[in-house]
Amino acid sequence: MNTTTRKQLRGYGLSPYLSIVITKTLTPTKKQGRTLIYDLSEVISAVRIYLTKTRLKPQTRVILQNLLTTLLERINNVVPLPFTRTTDPELSRLAKKAFESLRQAENHFANMKATLAEIRG
């Protein structure tokens, strides 16, 4: 399960106020010490809802859109394709292996970004 904290959200560029406003209506999935941990998909939904407000400053809107892009990278919702329908079985095997390697690398990179955001926050 992908999770995030307010500290990570601040590390991604949100102000302390925005990180509280975004997560205020959410129910934490767990608590680690004094840190509340939120489900990533719920945070993404809350950011999308907050972006629908008409009175947001342009700078705030850009920050939230960048945050949304970063969080969507972390959710890892890529659907694997069936590589077994080609005529060349060796090519199918290699394509599947390359796709899995790329998916693992993207997942690792997104987790590294989350750790960096935690450190910054």
Textual characterization of the structure:
By secondary structure, the chain is mainly α. 63% of the residues lie in helices and 9% in strands. The chain has five helices and three strands, in the order E-H-H-E-E-H-H-H. It has helices at 6-11, 16-23, 40-51, 58-75, 89-120; strands at residues 3-5, 30-32, 35-39. It has a three-stranded antiparallel sheet. A hairpin with a 2-residue loop joins strand 2 (30-32) and strand 3 (35-39). The longest helix is centred in the C-terminal third of the chain and has 32 residues, at 89-120. The chain is elongated. The model has no long low-confidence stretch (mean pLDDT 83).
Q: Point out poorly predicted stretches.
A: none
Determine the fraction of residues in helical runs and give it as a percent range.
55-70%
Quaternary class: single chain
What structural class should be given to the helix and strand makeup?
mainly alpha
Q: In total, how many beta strands? A: 3
Q: What distance lies between the first and last C-alpha atoms, to the nearest angstrom?
A: 21 Å
Radius of gyration (Å): 18 Å
Q: Please work out how many helical segments DSSP would assign.
A: 5
Number of domains: 1
Average pLDDT rating = 83
- Choose one word for the global shape: elongated
Q: What portion of the residues fall into strands of 2 or more residues?
A: 5-15%
Order of neighbouring strands in the sheet with most strands:
1-3-2
Largest sheet: 3 strands, antiparallel
One letter per element, helices H and strands E, the order comes to EHHEEHHH
